[in-house]
């Protein structure tokens, strides 16, 4: 379900003078991978338990990106994702173009390695094919070797599921990517590399007669980017650190993908973990030294500002954030917190999002609701606003609002009381709390509508405000947003109600805006 998005330039990394500033994607586009097809670059990222999954971003200059859709309509197995599983699902995908088709591989830590493919980035994409079943299989990447005609797969391991980490497993794969041709072999055991730990996120390439694996180690927040090479796929591999924080303020720097432009320039996109904002995407220049090893950034340390790639000028752009919800449809920037259910959205001829106040046994903990519609929290100071109205058919206990959602959460919105009156409410829950409590005392909302605002300051500190007809008024104390385990904090819209008989009513959202 998608509407026409508003493209914001406020979050573009393009400085307009032939240079760019990192991060090029200042939001949680976790574990990015990139591929070039002709003059076009396409990027995908982890989507974990959110739906639609596998976001698809497009650029022609590697700096200005737009979100063009998703490759995964629903998570499978469907029953496993009927409720939120924020740190499960799609981990660290790889995107490739081979034999006239786009291919995306990923590891689901609880189910195994999947792949989907399509003749076009717009689809139709195949249903997920389980290429290798098992626990703890993550960060999968294929390679079709044009020199030999052979196909390969490499993946890492999640210790939380398998008891194994810090090693990479390689397989020979059928060229149609429907089957693995062997039992697999450990091709890199980083326990044998002094000082290396938590080797993961491998991306597999062929270059200059070598098999190359670009993979990070040392942990998400404090580690480095490594390169490994071997003459044969099964090894032995030699290793080198090719990008590390050094004296910069860019921690990590963590996993990503290498891409070469049509003119032969090399670039590397990776992420940086930034607390509640999640994993922000950076672009690094890349070259090959006289010994044949890659050199990333400024002689191995990340750049903050750099000249843009030598590519045709592109209009400044960034993934959409704003939405008028034309025809009741929402844009591709929005994702549910689980596989969606029928009747959650009510389409209509005009603008505005009509969300059903879905009944549930525990509507008081947003972390457990599958019907929260979310988008990424920008990693820049910004103001978020939306208009909310409740319909006259709203039943007692029904509520709806605008939320900042993570391991802890806070929301501001409207709730219909047992007396039929509508109140403005502001609620929150700490990470250890099992249900919400008031952040401010409820107050009447006479005409069942309110303009809601969140002012996001430095460090993702959020001030909540609302206008019920007398101008914006602050509500409650500042709330410090928090991430989930692997996911940055999210902005969310929702409607919910306690269990009962019949429809609980509708929450109507209009004019969603984010302003830097």
TrEMBL record:
It comes from the Bacteria. Belongs to the glycosyl hydrolase 43 family. It comes from Streptomyces indicus. Keywords: Glycosidase, Hydrolase. InterPro entries: ConA-like_dom_sf, GH43_C2, Glyco_hydro_43, Glyco_hydro_beta-prop_sf, Glycosyl_Hydrlase_43. Pfam families: GH43_C2, Glyco_hydro_43. Gene3D superfamilies: 2.60.120.200, Glycosyl hydrolase domain, family 43 (2.115.10.20). Residues 323-514 form the Beta-xylosidase C-terminal Concanavalin A-like domain. GO terms for molecular function: hydrolase activity, hydrolyzing O-glycosyl compounds. GO terms for biological process: carbohydrate metabolic process. This is Beta-xylosidase. The keyword Hydrolase applies.
């Amino acid at each position: 379900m998608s509407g026409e998005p508003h493209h914001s330039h406020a979050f573009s990394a393009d400085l307009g003078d032939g240079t760019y500033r990192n991060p090029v994607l200042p939001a949680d586009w976790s574990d990015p991978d990139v591929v070039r097809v002709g003059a076009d670059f396409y990027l995908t990222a982890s989507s974990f338990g959110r739906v639609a999954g596998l976001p698809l971003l497009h650029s022609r200059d590697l700096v200005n990106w737009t979100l063009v859709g998703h490759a995964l309509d629903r998570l499978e197995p469907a029953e496993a994702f009927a409720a939120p599983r924020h740190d499960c699902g799609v981990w660290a995908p790889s995107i490739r173009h081979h034999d006239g088709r786009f291919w995306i591989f990923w590891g689901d830590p609880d189910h195994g390695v999947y792949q989907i493919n399509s003749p076009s980035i717009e689809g139709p994409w195949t249903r997920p094919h389980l290429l290798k079943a098992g626990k703890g299989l993550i960060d999968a990447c294929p390679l079709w070797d044009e020199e030999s005609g052979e196909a390969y797969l490499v993946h890492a391991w999640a210790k939380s599921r398998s008891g194994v980490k810090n090693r990479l497993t390689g397989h020979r794969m059928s060229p149609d990517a429907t089957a693995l041709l062997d039992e697999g072999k450990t091709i890199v055991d980083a326990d044998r590399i002094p000082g290396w730990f938590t080797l993961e996120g491998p991306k597999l390439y062929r270059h200059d007669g070598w098999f190359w694996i670009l993979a990070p180690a040392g942990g998400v927040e404090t580690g480095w980017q490594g390169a490994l090479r071997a003459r044969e796929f099964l090894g032995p591999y030699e290793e080198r650190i090719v990008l590390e924080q050094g004296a910069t303020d860019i921690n990590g720097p963590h996993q990503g993908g290498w891409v070469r432009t049509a003119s032969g320039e090399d670039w590397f996109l990776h992420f940086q973990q930034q607390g509640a904002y999640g994993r922000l995407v950076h672009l690094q220049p890349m070259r090959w030294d006289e010994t044949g090893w890659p050199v990333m950034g400024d002689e191995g340390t990340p750049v903050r500002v750099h000249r843009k790639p030598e590519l045709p000028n592109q209009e400044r752009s960034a993934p959409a954030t704003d939405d008028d919800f034309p025809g009741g449809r929402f844009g591709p920037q929005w994702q549910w917190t689980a596989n969606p259910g029928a009747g959650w959205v009510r389409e209509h001829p005009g603008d505005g999002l009509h969300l059903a106040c879905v009944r549930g046994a525990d509507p008081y903990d947003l972390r457990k609701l599958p019907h929260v519609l979310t988008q990424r929290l920008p990693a820049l100071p910004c103001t978020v606003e939306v208009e909310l109205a409740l319909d006259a058919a709203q039943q007692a206990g029904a509520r709806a609002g605008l939320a900042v959602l993570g391991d802890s959460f806070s929301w501001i919105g409207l709730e219909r009381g047992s007396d039929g009156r509508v109140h403005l409410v502001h609620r929150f829950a700490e990470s250890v709390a099992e249900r919400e409590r008031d952040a401010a005392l409820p107050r009447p909302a006479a005409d069942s509508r309110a303009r809601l605002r969140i002012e996001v300051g430095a460090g993702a500190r959020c001030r909540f405000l609302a206008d019920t007809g007398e101008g914006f008024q602050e509500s409650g104390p500042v709330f410090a947003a928090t991430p989930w385990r692997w996911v940055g904090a999210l902005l969310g819209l929702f409607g919910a109600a306690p269990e009962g008989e019949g429809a609980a009513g509708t929450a109507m959202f209009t004019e969603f805006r984010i302003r830097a």
